[in-house]
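Example (one chain per record):
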Amino acid sequence: MIDVDTNGSIRTITLDRPEARNALTVDGLTALETAVDDTDEPVIYLRGRGPAFCAGADLNAVAALEGDRNRAAEFARLGQRVARTIEDTSAIVVAGIDGPARGGGLELALACDVRIGTPDSTYGEPGVSFGLFGAWGGTVRLPRVMGEGDALEFALTGRSIDAEEALRMGVISRIEDDPQSVAEEIAANATDTLPVLKRRLRDDSERATQERREAAAFADLVAAHADDIDAVLD
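Predicted structure:
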């Protein structure tokens, strides 16, 4: 279900179940969590195999939870934990979205640091049409990414949006024919600076604390990269 490949500074994690549009079961989620958690590479590129990025939770697995509230809640918590693992890893996680990203697939993409869509990518939270909603952190991240108004309209209608509208809403930051090129662009930079920037940009402490941490991190990097700075000046 999950394929892992490493090339230099980039670990590529592929959701590898194209016959099911890369829908995720408990085993798939667990394997994805392990693939992210075990990485030593500074950049992770997350993609789907075949014509879809990810259809979200496998509905057969969801149907098997009927009548068992505890197992249903456990399944939701597992998806939430995987999304947090993606969000909290020190690596920069780039989602390369080609084709549909639906439900939990979109939620996992929202947990990534950078989301790049191809012109053929589409996005949706269709669960509301059959009595569900995205419970892998989507109700937390959607308004943070889109803004509350767009998030409410998007989730309550269950409609799909194309790459251009996703770009306008902030769901993706670029439209590229080859999203992996953005992962390569990031990996070409000073790799020890990447996790520092991620921590600083994600810091939601009050401003004085953020600024103190920012200054300390800057001082550490100046010391670590003295020779690089001198080389630029030369």
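Caption: The radius of gyration is 19 Å.
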